[in-house]
Specification:
CATH topology of one domain: Thrombin, subunit H
Shape: elongated
Radius of gyration: 21 Å
Structural class: alpha+beta
Helix content: 10-25%
Strand order of the largest sheet: 4-5-6-7
Largest sheet: 4 strands, antiparallel
Distance between the termini: 64 Å
Oligomer: single chain
Strand content: 25-35%
Length: 162
């Protein structure tokens, strides 16, 4: 029996459609916010001139991987400054001030944004592809779609009591 060359190709295309490649890293995004901005520049500045083992060493700031944070890394950061990518922060409920809000934490534990005025946020779901987040508030009978970077409300769906 002769082997078909189209079967592996079709199988490969099928797998790629099921599991699309998503870029998880943005060079220069030191704080994990999904954009290269002034916060990243501050983190870079703190590590500038350091090398592995120094007290102010930050491996994230060593953008070219040569073991030191120097002008070569600054050139890479400068080239990416202002770029945005996907932000893979974790959205969590927060009641530290008496008001229920949601906040987004970076993969490094930094608080990226804190928004909302919810009464009972019972579900927080995010879209991995776009980064947007949906918050269902049982007390307000609303579902809000939030911007992945600013946390601004993009859409509100009002529920109806039956």
């Amino acid at each position: 029996m002769k082997k078909s060359k189209t079967t592996p190709l079709v199988l490969t295309l099928f797998v790629l459609m099921l599991f699309p490649f998503v870029a998880h890293a943005l060079p220069g995004d030191l704080d994990g916010s999904g954009r290269v901005d002034g916060y990243d520049l501050i983190l870079f500045g703190r590590a500038y001139g350091s090398q592995s083992g120094d007290a102010n060493w930050n491996s994230e700031a060593d953008l070219n991987g040569d073991g030191k944070v120097d002008s070569a890394d600054l050139s890479l950061l400068s080239a990416q400054f202002g770029s945005t990518g996907l932000s893979f922060g974790l959205w969590v409920g927060d009641q530290t001030s008496g008001t229920l809000r949601v906040r987004k934490l970076s993969n490094k534990g930094n608080q990226l944004v804190r928004v909302g005025d919810f009464t009972t946020p019972i579900s927080i779901s995010s879209n991995v592809t776009t980064g947007e987040v949906w918050v269902a508030d049982q007390g307000l009978d609303k579902v809000k779609k939030l911007d992945p970077f600013s946390g601004a409300t993009l859409l509100t769906v009002n529920g109806i009591d039956a």
